[in-house]
Structures are given as C-alpha cells and as structure tokens.
Amino acid sequence: MYRVNRKTFYTGLGAIAALLLPALAQAEDTLNSGDTAWMLTSTALVLFMTIPGLSLFYAGMVRAKNGLSVMMQCFAITALMSVLWAVFGYSIAFGGDGAYWGGLGKAFLKGVGVDSLSGTIPETVFMTFQMTFAIITPALIVGAFAERMKFSAMLWFMGIWLALVYAPIAHWVWGGGGWLGGKGILDFAGGTVVHINAGIAGLMTALVLGKRKGYPTTAMPPHNLMFTVVGAAMLWVGWFGFNAGSELAADGTAGMAMAVTQIATAMAALAWMFAEWMAHGKPSVLGIASGAVAGLVAITPASGAVGPMGALAIGLAAGVGCFLAATRLKRALGYDDSLDAFGVHAIGGIIGALLTGVFAAKNLGGAGFADGISSIGQQVGVQFIGVASTLVYTAVVTLVILKVLDALIGLRVTEEQETEGLDLALHDERSYNL
Amino acid sequence: MKLVSAIIKPFKMDDVRESLSEIGVQGITVTEVKGFGRQKGHTELYRGAEYVVDFLPKVKIEVAVDASLLDQVVEAISKAAKTGKIGDGKIFVFKLDQVIRIRTGESGNEAL
Question: Residues of B numbered 16-45 whose beta carbons fall under 8 angstroms of chain A's beta carbons: which are they?
C-alpha cells in the first residue's frame, strides 16, 4: 500500500524539488529523531507481543503437560527467525524491486550500515522492526499444531516457511515493486502478510498432522487461563507497535492507527463476549480475550486507512465472525486447529482485509483509497485479489513443505510421547515442580 | 482403636475440624480428593467446546480414635458436615490394628 506508492511518490517529488528547491530536497532524506524514537519503541513492543505475549496466550490454553513446549516453540522461533531474517529474510522481502521476489542483494544485511536510511529512520531500525513481524507470523502457526508436533520438524518447517512463504508475500505487499502493492492493496500492518498467511498455514499443519489423540471426545480444557488473559493483554498493548508502528513515522496517521486499533479491539472483545453470553448463557474470560485478539487481527490491515467508526464496524464484524468460526465452524468441519489459529487469524484477517476496502472510503471516515483506485468496489476487488492469492499460495506451498518434511523426517510425535506430554517427552522438563 | 475416614464438602472442613476439637480429638489428617457419588458434575465451556466435569473436589478427613470415642466422633462429623443437599459425603470406619508415635516410640492408646 502506502509504502510502495509513498516511497515512489516522494522520491519523484524529491527529485523535482532537488532541482528547484534545494532545502526541500533535504527533508525526506534526513533522519527524523522523533520517527526513529517511535520506531525503536515499536520494535520492542512488537517483539514483546511474541515473547512473552503470544507465548503466554497459547501456553495457558494447552494442557499443563505441554505448557513448556509452547513456550519453547515461541522462544526458539524468535531466535531462529531473527538469525534467518538477517541472513536472507530481509533481503527476500525488502532487498530488491522484483514483482515477486526481492532477491539476495541484501543477504547478510549487506549495505545496511549505521548511516543507512529507510525513509526518515535508520534502515537498521526498519530491518529490525520488520524482523519482529517475521518472528510473530510463524509463532502464530504454533496455535494450530500445538501438543503434537516434533520440535526438530517444527524448526525445519519454520526456517523453510520464512524463505518460501513469509518473505515473498511480505515482498508482494510491502517490498519495492511488489505486485500486490503495485495493484493498490491496502494492507497497513499485515492482514494478509501476517494473519491470513499464518492462519492458512496453520490450517494446513492441522490437517497434515491430524487431530490430537482423543480429540474431540476427550476434555482438553486450558490449564491456566490466567496466563491466557495476561498474554492477550500483552498482545493488545504490544499491538500499538504493530499497527501504529507500521506508519514508520510519528505522525497523524500513526495516531489514528493507534486510535482505531483500540476502538476495534474493544468492540470485538465486547462483541464476542455478548455473542457467547447469548449463545451459552454466560460470558467467559477466554471469550472476551479471544474477541480482543480477533479485533486486533481484523484492524491490522485497516489501521492506516479507516477512521474510528469504520473501526467500530470492523471490530463488531470480527468479534462475531471469529466467534462463529472458532466455535461453530471448527466443530462442524472437524479439524483440530488446537488454538484456533485459522478461526481467529485467517478469518479475522479476511474480514479485516475486505472491510478495509469498504471503510477506507472518505465518506465513511477513511483516509481514501490507494492511488489509482476510485471506488469501494474497485478497492474491495483489489483486497480480494490479495486475500485470494495469499490464501492459495500459502496453502499450496505450506502443504508441499509439510509433505516433504513428513516424508524425510516425520512431523508428528509418537502416541506415547503425545500421551506423556511434550514437556517431558521432547525436553525432559517439567514446568511446575509443585 | 478405630480409623474414621470421612469424605466431605471442602467448605465444611473448618466446621468439622472445630467440632472434633470440641470433643477432644487432637490429631487429624486432611487430603484434597476428587470424586462423585450421586451428585452430578457441572459443565465447563471453552470456545464452544463443552466439557462435563464429573469429578468434584472433596476433602477427606482421617482421625484415629479410641473405640470409646467412636460414636461421638461419627456424630460430630455428621452434624458438622451436613448441608442436606446431595454430595454431603460419607463416613467410613476402619478397625485400626496399631498406632505408634514416631518421636517417642509409644504405641496403642498412648499414641492416639
């Protein structure tokens, strides 16, 4: 969206200004310390979303015997993705101008030095900020295969997935020359790149790995909902870095992104809570926390383009939509997406991505459509292309990676290990020595 | 000597303990247990998945007493633990062969 077109636009403007107004030519090339300070902070906030935010959110929802395995998966993913991002991920996503692939020109962070700039912030900050996105996206997938995947297989899967799925899709939407960005997709902070992506990949892992032993007849209630709520709260707070930070500057758009994030999330939390209250007679803690996360997911693509009332609508749609997906749809279709990675992230991401096309309209309080687009219908059309292409690409490539890994090393733990619990079986550790 | 083992509702524990104290019982062992008799469980709900929880938390109280105190102990526990609703629990009485105080080596009634 904005990143591709703004950069090109301002570069063009800067070039013209450079000829006519030397002073103006300086403005876009120099480091802005306000922007940089905010982006340094945002980076920390987004990392905090994964460790420990998402980790606790997920760990609390699994059975006690698997709590540590979830923490381990999230922590290891954080470490692995950080290194791989520096080595090749950043380059594939942001290193070049191809339509589908950024190339390896910035592999090993070649050319990214102390003084390199990306807009008004140091390139190092931009790179690290994007790294935190490359960390949380795979970590989200953990929710789908929790309690039954081999740790070694997971590491291989995530490393390959970064290279073949996450980084390319990030390039399509945000990278220079990326084809979806070029079409005018509005995906401010990663509705497609992060959430639909992770959600679909999650569904694939759930289908390939199969259901947990005993699902759905054996009771597998969350072992510590206190962790889950704490984790959800950390996600909420950290998400200000995720959404408002995606402006890459400390300005009005960032301010609006923060405001709409809060409004949509709050609305979604209430929506899920009331939906559950009506459906089952009592509001639940897991419900309100899940509703909040659904709202956060849905407002993600919209946060740079919609206004407060649009946020309200998106939050309501996500709260109700994801409630139905996570409770009814999952039970109806029978797949074991343990922690609803698909139900919340894919469905929430799709709802958000499509509604972004609607509420970006200026007469609905939005900031306006992408360059070259002049109607809701047209914008929603582009959003749909983005959603569909991500869906298909991720589903297919993820499936291939999983099948190949399964054939080479096996993906699932043995039945005995699954019964014993992954903490002991895979890590020789017990989380609670009470 | 008798070993009286009673399964009661957890919130009744303090009442039972007090009434045993009043009749002179000096030692008591308490364990947290789970169980059900005719009292049905309850339902818990997690993201649309309903679970019926059959096992209810209970407390098991064990006291070792001289046979002469048995009837008073049973009556004290019964009265203190009763609510009149299903799930109040049960009292089991066992013959106790021997009791030894570890610190002093005393046995039999002196060890009670």
Answer: 44-45
